[in-house]
Design goal:
1170 residues; alpha/beta; seven-stranded parallel β-sheet; seven-stranded mixed β-sheet; 29 strands
Length: 1170
């Protein structure tokens, strides 16, 4: 480990002593290094140096514990090398292997074994694996339900008739299991259940006196105040214009006053607010043409309409009286009391079955340890105090991810928290679904005093410096989250304490991170369609190629080197949903992707085929598995061969058809003999032995080694072998059970622990959750237009740790159900927490990037989305506005618009893959601070006026773009006649459903893209007629280069004309032709902008075709404009600047002069040399 020079804040976190210390460590701030150095500082202090055994270090994964142990060992070895005669360091290096550095579950298990008699346990207990626990849960639930039905209590029968209504008890059973899982976050679940049952019997007279009513009233008051501020601000802006002020400001001010009045009534009670609704919206005056400022008038009216919708929704939400709502709550109470009893009865039966087998699950470890170590009031027991005396300090990594019961345990063994060191980053708390509670960290974050403090005072330290990311990435993160994150959304204000600082110096500059909106015409809002994902992934692939082939460089060990595909990672919200489409699209564009990275371990080809083969050994009459194995590299059956086998015996299954062909087909016979031999072996062999034989007889490892990324494939196959051994070690036996076990892991989305693939030279695709703790030179964040998953707010009965249960009320007579007061409150809180976690996920994703960051989203109409979001965009977005949005793309677009797109470049992808930057106007200003009166001129600053009047001497450079694409050059001297308006005001039309692709037609832009794509791959030497051109297009479609729809849309006759032209023949005959060649080069801005001498900009583009000859280059640019041969010369002149830029760039890249520049109009067959 290299010599470490800490920053001031790191030094404080390492050396501060004397009380509870919380370290808020931002992404990339070196928190693990700080934790290691703090431990070493204890061990090397002059007075009473500590031993590594004197510390309990808690991490939240086995891998993190191993990494930390390794870092401590490395540091001890480094210090031993400096002091070779130190016996103490030698002793500590030996002790570190058994030091208490472990997960919370490992610690709990060790404590329970040591104090088994006090905990009432068998010290030889085992940890139940997921599948054995699931089986015991199923049996326990059956027993609990049978007992409840046998007792026939009226409250349970009401529960069964409402929540459990249906053909069977499946819905009720799923509810019991789900609530039981969520109860595990409570230190004492039975106490929580009893308190909730009492809460449903509340004697309140006004709904606002209940925790649920208060939750909804507080939310209503926030929203009313938000809209009042919005309209007051707009009224002030409108007053600055005579006509607009006269027509609009009175109405806006009147509505704002009505909103303020309603907000005040919300704080009085439910029925009081109800009486204050509806909100008053006085009629607007008339003004012609938008008055003095039509844009302001349109924006103001749009915000007023949005306010109207919000007010109408509030009116609906508060339409019922307190009496009605409380009556519904009392009606739902019996079923909820029965549900809580049933959950606790199930828990008791499940516990009984586990104890009978000396089994504990992970929740048992936590709860039994908590009971052993804490009294009912949460204070430490004598056992906890005994443990506390062992440790100088308890250190907790990733503290933002603790649950309430885990925190109770940690505080109990750290002398009530007085000897506790916590490090984490609440902005990276993304495991609420695993019962993590970020509010535990947040409470300390807000209340603790800044270190240093007197002994015994809880203190905090902020680590803000990022030693991972370039300043451009840091600035983008700060701009986005400074705009989006607040206590209302994200549960934390992104202020000076939370913002990042670039901790390292980086040479030069790179372009700011990009937010790229990809047009996906026809895609519905928020839906996840493969074609929509493919369009977005294809655009990302073109950007990747442009980076790699254009010579982009990244830092490696302090020195720059060329960027490779292995430096790029694609991060997705859900790899299982969109990963396969991304992998296919990248591969189609020629971008290498790591095998299996689209869907993880089980989706990799070698693991999938091996599991299919094991399934056939268990039962060969499985057609899907059989096709998978036969068509794999192990046996190599082609599609034609499989078709012939199937046609030989159309009836029955495929295995029977194989048997019928065995007599006359040697290949089939060989397969069946191998399969029969393996099936015979499986009858007696252990699972691990069977897998070893399968791999040996079929040369599986050799086959993997011969394929691309062979080492990674071999490693995954080896990991499957290790899984089989782990399965048998757990006490299970049998091939069928192993297949069920792996299938259940797959269905739960669990991935076996497996080292990260790296160094393969291919793009990695992974989930954002999986990327936490990792970093990559270049990051692409995809799928941000996907709608947030709010399924947890639609369950039959909701649950929240503070607000309790949120049921629907069932009207059995009418066969309907509707939400209760509690349900609406719980749903609101859950939705806000889910969206806060989505925002933190975005933070994690953006902070993985070291050098470059790109964010993509596919939208049906990017310009319309910008137009919709622009009126509400501001530098600091209110939580109420963001909570109404349904995808991360809307958040990001709003942030880019609100911050002027300075740190996050907002652009729209053109059909040719180029990025057209969106010119962002200044966002609406925030509400002005109240005036405090005139200030006297300070004599300390006599030249203040001169300073304030200073004019920046390079004003011209402010208007220069940092990046320019070649396609933009034709519009620099004037408006581009071909360009569509940025914000077209067209009527929205509903898209006709496309059934099996029927009637789908490509628009002009898509047809142009298809033609360019075809010319990239076509062999022009094989085209002599339209029919041969069509045959070539069909070949590209068969190879996956074009979709069938794209191939059909390309004009074959036009291709034939081009192939027969002088330019086409020259391309076909030339030995070296560069097609779709991307470039990105720095060039002097004066080439394109007068008076810009000394400034530089990044010129980007993609050259359609470049013929390379010894004496120079020929640049060919394809155009699909519908222009006649006679008009072609005049039209070609428009593209002269673009061809000139291509010529300059290709000459720089190749070192050869450009001798010809040709524009080829495919529609007319005309070629014009410039």
């Amino acid at each position: 480990m290299a010599a470490f020079e800490p920053t001031a804040s790191q030094k404080l976190a390492i050396e501060d002593r004397g009380g509870e210390l919380l370290v808020s460590a931002a992404a990339g701030s070196g928190k693990t290094r700080v934790l290691t150095e703090r431990l070493m500082s204890w061990m090397t202090q002059g007075e009473r140096p500590a031993s590594v055994e004197d510390f309990l270090v808690i991490t939240f994964s086995t891998a993190a514990a191993a990494e930390l142990r390794g870092r401590i060992s490395e540091e001890l070895e480094r210090r031993r090398a400096e002091e070779p005669g130190s016996k103490r360091l030698r002793r500590e290096a030996a002790l570190v292997r058994r030091a208490p550095i472990e997960t919370i579950h490992g610690f709990c298990a060790a404590v329970l074994r040591e104090y088994a008699s006090r905990a009432g346990l068998d010290p030889d207990f085992a940890i139940a694996d997921e599948d054995r626990a699931a089986e015991l849960r199923r049996l326990a639930l059956e027993t609990a339900l049978e007992s409840a039905y046998a007792a026939g209590e009226p409250e349970f029968l009401a529960l069964a008739d409402s929540v459990g209504a249906g053909r069977d008890d499946r819905r009720l059973a799923e509810l019991v299991l789900r609530l039981h899982d969520k109860l595990q976050a409570q230190a004492r679940p039975e106490d929580w259940a009893r308190e909730q049952a009492e809460l449903f019997s509340s004697p309140a007279e006004d709904a606002g006196e209940t925790p649920w009513g208060r939750e909804l009233l507080d939310g209503a008051a926030e929203e009313l105040d938000y809209w009042a501020s919005e309209l007051e601000s707009l009224a002030g802006e409108l007053e600055g214009h005579e006509k607009l002020g006269k027509a609009y400001s009175g109405s806006f001010a009147g509505t704002a006053q009505s909103l303020r009045s309603a907000s005040a009534r919300a704080r009085e009670g439910w029925d009081s607010l109800r009486a204050a609704l509806p909100v008053d919206f006085p009629r607007l005056g008339s003004v012609r043409g938008g008055g003095e400022d039509p844009e302001l008038a349109a924006a103001a009216k749009a915000r007023r309409e949005a306010c109207k919708k919000a007010a109408k929704r509030l009116e609906r939400d508060f339409s019922q009286s307190s009496a009605e709502l409380l009556r519904d709550m009392r009606a739902a109470a019996p079923a909820m009391r029965a549900l809580l009893r049933l959950v606790m009865d199930f828990d008791a039966e499940y516990t009984r079955r586990k104890r009978r087998r000396s089994l504990l699950d992970f929740s048992d470890l936590e709860h039994l340890a908590a009971r052993l170590l804490t009294e009912p009031d949460g204070s430490p027991t004598e056992t906890a105090r005994e443990l506390s005396r062992r440790y100088r300090e308890v250190m907790v990594d990733e503290y933002q991810d603790v649950s309430a019961v885990q925190d109770l345990i940690i505080r109990a063994v750290s002398d009530g928290g007085r000897r506790l060191f916590m490090v984490g980053d609440v902005k990276q708390s993304i495991y609420r679904f695993r019962l993590a509670d970020p509010t535990i960290f947040l409470e300390k974050y807000e209340k603790y005093a800044d270190a240093p403090q007197p002994e015994g005072v809880p203190r905090r330290v902020f680590l803000r410096e990022s030693f991972r990311s370039r300043p451009e990435v840091v600035d983008a993160v700060n701009a986005v989250f400074g705009c989006l994150m607040s206590k209302g959304l994200g549960e934390l204000d992104y202020d000076e304490r939370a913002a990042l600082r670039a901790g390292l110096e980086h040479p030069g500059v790179v372009p700011v991170p990009e937010l790229v909106l990809v047009p996906a015409p026809g895609a519905e809002e928020g839906e996840e369609r493969p074609d929509k994902t493919a369009v977005e992934a294809a655009q990302a692939a073109r950007m990747m190629r442009r980076l790699v082939e254009g010579g982009a460089r990244v830092m490696d060990g302090g020195s720059p080197r060329p960027l490779g595909y292995g430096d790029i990672a694609v991060l997705l919200r859900s790899v299982n949903v969109s990963g396969p489409a991304w992998r296919r699209a990248l591969s189609r564009e020629g971008v290498p992707v790591e095998a299996g990275s689209s869907g993880g371990f089980f989706e990799s080809a070698e693991v999938s085929v091996m599991l299919s083969l094991l399934a056939l050994i268990d039962n060969p009459r499985q057609d899907v598995a059989l096709v998978s194995v036969l068509s794999s590299a192990l046996f190599g059956f082609s599609a034609d061969e499989l078709t012939r086998i199937r046609l030989r015996r159309p009836e029955g299954d495929l295995y029977a058809a194989l048997r019928s062909c065995a007599g006359e087909d040697a290949k089939v016979r060989d397969f069946l003999e191998r399969l029969d031999g393996l099936r015979d072996l499986a009858r007696d062999a252990e699972l691990a032995e069977l897998l070893r034989e399968v791999c040996g007889r079929l040369d599986c490892f050799a086959v993997c080694a011969a394929m691309p990324e062979g080492e990674a494939r071999r490693a995954r196959l080896q990991r499957l072998f290790e899984l089989a051994r782990d399965f048998e070690k757990s006490g299970w036996r049998g091939l069928h059970r192993f297949l069920d076990w792996t299938a259940s892991m797959r269905s739960r989305g669990e991935e076996p622990a497996f080292p990260e693939e790296g160094g393969s030279g291919a793009v990695r695709i992974m989930s954002i959750h999986r990327s936490k703790g990792l970093e990559f030179p270049v990051v692409f964040i995809g799928g941000t237009a996907r709608s947030f998953n709010l399924a947890d707010t639609r369950e039959s009965v909701l649950m929240h740790p503070q607000l309790g249960l949120g049921p629907k009320l069932t009207d059995a007579a009418r066969g309907i159900e509707y939400p209760t007061l509690a349900r609406r409150a719980v749903a609101r809180r859950l939705e806000r927490e889910l969206l806060s976690e989505e925002l933190r996920l975005l933070y994690v994703a953006m902070t993985r990037a070291r050098e470059r960051l790109f964010i993509t989203c596919a939208l049906p109409d990017p310009e319309a989305r910008i137009e919709k979001l622009a009126p509400g965009a501001s530098a600091r977005m209110p939580a109420q506005a963001l909570l109404a949005m349904r995808c991360a793309a809307d958040w990001l677009i709003s942030a880019a618009l609100g911050t002027g797109s300075r740190a996050l470049n907002l652009s729209i992808a053109a059909p040719d893959g180029e990025l057209d930057r969106v010119e962002v106007k200044n966002a609406r200003p925030q509400a002005a601070e109240p005036e405090t009166g005139p200030e006297e001129e300070s004599p300390a600053v006599p030249d203040l006026a001169a300073r304030l009047d200073w004019i920046y001497p390079h004003r011209g450079a402010e208007r220069l773009p940092s990046k320019l694409t070649a396609t933009e050059l034709k519009s620099l001297d004037g408006p581009d006649e071909e360009a569509a308006p940025l914000l077209p005001r067209t009527a929205r039309r509903f898209r006709k459903p496309e059934l099996e692709g029927a009637g789908r037609r490509l628009d002009a832009a898509e047809r142009g893209t298809a033609a360019h794509l075809a010319l990239r791959y076509l062999d022009l030497g094989r085209i002599g007629s339209a029919a041969e051109a069509r045959a070539e297009l069909d070949r590209l479609a068969a190879e996956g280069r074009l979709s069938p729809l794209e191939a059909g849309a390309v004009d074959a006759a036009a291709l034939a004309r081009f192939a027969a032209s002088e330019t086409g023949r020259k391309i076909a005959a030339s030995p070296r032709v560069l097609r779709e060649f991307p470039f990105a080069l720095l060039c002097g801005a004066e080439r394109f902008f007068a008076g810009a001498e000394g400034e530089e900009l990044l010129l980007q583009g993609v050259v359609d075709c470049c013929i390379v000859e010894d004496d120079g280059l020929t640049i060919v640019d394809y155009k699909t404009d519908a222009v006649s041969a006679a008009a072609a010369p005049e039209r070609a002149l428009r593209y002269a600047p673009q061809l000139e830029a291509y010529a300059w760039a290709m000459s720089r890249v190749t070192g050869l002069p450009v001798k010809r520049r040709v524009v080829c109009f495919l529609a007319s067959g005309a070629s014009v040399e410039l």
